[in-house]
Amino acid sequence: MRTWRPRLEDSSLPNLTDCHIQSLMAPFMSDEVHRAVFRADGDKAPGPDGFGLLFYQHFWSILKDDIMQVFEEFQKEGKGMGCLNASIFILIPKKEGAESIGKFGPICLVNGGYMLVAKVMAARLKFACADLIDDNQSAFLPGRSLQEGFTFSQEIISSLHKNRRRGAILKLGFSKAFNRFEWNFLFNILERHGFPPLWVKMLANCITMAKASVLVNGTACGFFPIN
Predict the structure, then answer these.
(1) Which of 50, 116, 49, 107 is nearest to 83 (CA)?
(2) Which of 70, 71, 117, 196 could form a disulfide with 28 if both were Cys (CB 3.0 to 4.6 A apart)?
(3) Is 92 helix (H, G, I), strand (E, B) or coil?
């Protein structure tokens, strides 16, 4: 059953500059992909393809042309990534000697090719969003800390109490926000900020076309959509 969601039509949102739009839409270059490959932690478990990022680092000179072709095809008309956008869920022990289910934790293993595309897109997005994020945002940004928000709130409460002034405090809690996020709302926000339609489509394909499988006794038990 489809649920109707309102669209944001606020024209006061800041827009991307022409410079940022050009940087987002520029063809992917081998040097930025090279940076993503060699800045990544190569000692990570591989995804369904069986190749970890250490493999890409070690054989970069041989794989470079094939990897760049993946980027070129992905950027062309915002095509999906097919089987590269697949992952597997497995359970790993939280500590040595784990036997009961509560002592295991789930992790999601992603294909190296998809991981590289995601890292390069994130690097471009980070540069483009620099002028769109408010200065009051205190978390999930380089140089800012979540603790700043708590400190600021404590100072406000202390000031109200000290000066005997009335005030109201609103605390909002989010549970597993990523899994509950309305993706169409995010894409709408990006459009209102002036992100190019092709870029929004590329990002949407990364999210909405993802699929996963559960690894049971070393065997993947069929893939299912996870968007």
Answers:
(1) 49
(2) 71
(3) strand
Check: CB of residue 213 under 8 Å from CB of residue 108.
Answer: no
**For residue 70, how many other CB atoms are within 10 A of its CB?**
19
H or E element in which residue 189 lies: helix 183-192
With the CA atoms of 74, 78, 84 and 89 taken in that order, what torsion angle do they form, in degrees rounded to the nearest 10? 140
Residue 108 host element (H or E): strand 104-110
What DSSP character marks residue 77? G
Cβ neighbours of residue 85 under 8 Å, at least 6 residues apart?
A: 111, 114, 205, 206, 209, 210, 211
Number of alpha carbons in the 13 Å side-chain half-sphere of residue 173: 1
SS3 109: strand
Q: What is the pLDDT of residues 146-170, one digit of tens each?
A: 788 788 888 988 999 899 898 888 8
Residue 57 to residue 46: CA distance in whole angstroms = 13
Tokens of 90: 């497995």
Report pTM: 0.78
